[in-house]
Structures are given as C-alpha cells and as structure tokens.
Design brief:
By secondary structure, this protein is α+β, with helices and mostly antiparallel strands. The protein is built from eight helices and 16 strands. The chain folds into three domains: 17-78, Structural Genomics Hypothetical 15.5 Kd Protein In mrcA-pckA Intergenic Region, Chain A; 97-177, Pseudouridine synthase (2-Layer Sandwich); 182-332, Pseudouridine synthase, CATH 3.30.2350.10.
Length: 340
C-alpha cells in the first residue's frame, strides 16, 4: 500500500554500506524494481519497492520511481539492509477484536504496538498477536505480514483489517487501491484551523533531509498527490478536535497535512515538536503536571468496506481509547472558544 511504504522501510533498513551496480546492455529497459529483484533474490519485491520509495536506491545519484526504465551504463546504488525475517513468532498478546468471521477480522489496534516485525521490533507486534490468535492467515503481504492488509503507525490507534486467505486479501487490497474504502479518523490538534470544514490538497513526498519524515513537496520523483478532508468537532482554547477523511493514502498523510496548515496533531513528536502533555497544560493550570497523553492524538475511528465474500457494506468502528477520552475530558473543563 502506498501509505505504508516509507514507514516500513525506515524501520527495516539498516546502515549497511551501499552496493553498486552498473546496468549491463542486456538489462537496458528493465524496470528499476525488476532490476533489484534480479540482483537481490533473497528479498521480496514488495520490500524492494518500498526501499525505492524510501530513497534507499539511487540511479546516477538521483532518486527515481519504481517503474523507471534503466539505460545501459547507468550506476545503481542500493542500501539494502538485512533481509526481513521469514515470519513473526506467535505471541499470546491480548487483542481487541471488533469483527471476526471465517474470511476476515478487524482489530482495534492499541497505541505503542508496531504492526509487523521490523528492525528493533521483532516481538510484541500485531503480526505476532494475529499469528497466535488466528493461526494461518493470508500470505499476500509477505512472510512478515501474515493477514495484514494495511497498516497504522505505531502510536496511531484504531481499526485495522486482517485477511484470513489470499483471495480475501486481494479483494480488500483492491478496495484500498481503488479508493472505495471509506476511512474516518479522529484527531486532537494544536491551534485552530481557519475553517469549520475544508479540504487540504498538498502533494506529499519524502522529506529532503530527514529520511523518517514526509513533507509537502512539489516536483520530486517521490511526490504524489494527496487530499484530506477535515471537519471541526469541537474547539477549545489552543486546541481543536477534528474528524478527518483522507481521500488518498500516503505515508503520514494526515499528520503532514495538518502540520502544513499550522495545526499539528497533538503530541506528534515527528511533526509537532513535542511528545507529551499534562492535564494542567490542557486545562490552563500548569501546576497540574499529570501527563494525560504521551503519543500522537490520532485514531482510526471508522472503516466502511464491501465485505469481500458477501458483497454487503460493512462498517467497522473502534471507540476512542482511554487516553484520548481523558484528554477530551480535560479540554472540556476549559471555557471553549466556540462549540459545535
């Protein structure tokens, strides 16, 4: 999925020394991803494509698209990292299952849980918990991501889908690819947007200097169009609660878009500059230092899909977690600037 690519490679890649290739005449015209698959047979094509998107590959010093056609004599540099481990180890980790049938399931992912094994996170992942809970799952996402159709950032909570076989996985993935999935997020942000509802249309690409970040960026090989609709739910002094509907699915899209309009997600350490906030800071009484939130205030509240086997609409809703409820409660103790 497009919205997963950079995050996953940033987690998986290492600081190995770069490897260089010169494109042979017989390889001229090959796509860049096919060229890498030929030279790195131990890596999945999915991983190699993500590596390209995450700027782990250059051609004559330039970062290019997955489908770029190579020319004889070009110099390809690759920092491949270690091959992903074959499969997650099943672990008995409690899961909040909000939907389950013979074909698929939906989980309310907690904060702090990495979706799949990656460098520095080989245990305690959602993939390990799913392997223990459900056993055999779809293998379409690769050996380290059994059943996982899409992903959420480690500190984003909410609905995530799980496919129990390859056919169901393919049908669900097609819905994401064709943008027929209705996605709704909840966020608490710093500051206040100018309008009660609006659409943010800013292209997103890899950050020019920080590999783990994305940025609003024009005219770069990694740049993709991105659109997010927002609507104000409640306004507070210095903060706003929003409903968000991403029309596209780019890495960190909501977080980048909100930061671009001066309303970074609360406690988003990457795009907002701080990682926690106290009850006193929320209510306007700084003497109360009890920390209420220690992760980004972003929650995947609702997904609406077409069930891959019944063909019927299916709405999956994850209630707000306790830390976001407590944050809202503290904000409501203020005198709101304007209610809705």
């Amino acid at each position: 999925m497009e919205d997963e690519a950079t995050d996953q490679v940033a987690d998986e890649a290492t600081t190995d020394q770069p490897i260089h290739f010169t494109v042979e005449p017989a390889e001229a015209g090959w796509r860049l991803d096919a060229f890498l698959a030929h030279h790195f047979p131990d890596y999945s094509r999915v991983y190699l494509r993500r590596l390209i998107v995450a700027d782990g590959v250059t051609v004559d010093g330039s970062r290019l698209k997955v489908a770029y056609r190579l020319k004889a004599g070009q110099r390809v540099q690759v920092i491949p990292g270690a091959p992903p481990r074959e499969s997650p180890r099943p672990e008995d980790i409690p899961l909040d299952v909000i939907y389950d049938d013979e074909q698929m399931a939906a989980i309310n992912k907690p904060t702090g849980m990495v979706v799949h094994p990656a460098r520095g996170h080989w245990s305690g992942t959602l993939a390990s918990a799913l392997a223990f809970r459900f056993g055999n799952l779809s293998g379409q996402g690769g050996p380290t991501r059994p059943g996982i159709v899409h992903r959420l950032d480690r500190d984003t909570t909410g609905v995530i889908l799980v496919a129990k076989n390859d056919q169901v996985h393919a049908k669900l993935a097609d819905q994401f690819q064709n943008r027929t999935v209705e996605k709704e997020y909840f966020a608490i942000v710093l500051g206040a947007p100018q309008y009660d509802r609006d659409e943010i249309n800013h292209p997103i690409g890899v950050h020019p200097h920080q590999r783990d970040k994305m940025a609003v960026r024009h005219d770069h090989p990694t740049t993709r169009e991105a659109t997010t609709f927002y609507e104000v739910i409640e306004r507070f002094k210095g903060f706003t609660a929003l409903r968000l509907v991403p029309r596209t699915g780019r890495t960190h899209q909501i977080r980048v878009h909100l930061a671009s309009i001066g309303c970074a997600v609360l406690c988003d350490r990457l795009y907002g500059g701080r990682a926690d906030i106290s009850r006193g800071e929320l209510r306007g009484g700084p003497a109360d230092g009890e920390l209420l939130l220690t992760r980004q205030a972003l929650h995947a509240r609702r997904l609406r899909i077409i069930h891959p086997t019944t063909g019927q609409p299916l709405e999956l809703v994850a209630p707000l977690p306790a830390d976001l409820e407590a944050t809202l409660s503290a904000l409501r103790d203020q005198l709101p600037v304007r209610g809705r």
